[in-house]
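ugh ok fine here u go
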Amino acid sequence: METFFERISNYQFLNNLLPGTIFVIILNSFTSFIIENDNILILLFICYFFGFVISRIGSLVVEPILENMKFVRFKTHSEYISASLKDKKIDLLMEHNNLFRSFIAMLLLVGFVMIYDKLQTICPFLERNNMIIFLVLLIFLFLFSFRKQTIYISNRIEYYENKKEDFKNETGNI
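structure:
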């Protein structure tokens, strides 16, 4: 257990646990969905998991919507890598940026859950199938997250392969 907490970075802690905890508090206060557990460690993991899900929603839903609306503009992945290698503060700024994105996603998710909570009172099908609906949504969320992460990793590999080629072309060797 100790190694788990050692491996969680400040970024993961803030970006997952904080929004997840606030989300659980809001759910418990304003919906019929009550998340509780006498074991504080289990409750901590539940909040972290909800925060992780919120972060993925922010990445897969909120970010593209804001980008398509031209509310934000991103640099290319290779520009980001190149700049972050030169300026270490960019990574910290990106962490803060992603935290804001997670809070936007959390607030939107709270709204959707509150609407769903009201809908299930008039549609018994929803109430009877809460867990199935939740699991299906999670499967799709993690499938698309996996795809996005794979693209991200491939882009980083491609960036460094191109840099290796540039270096090879400049020096004539590697």
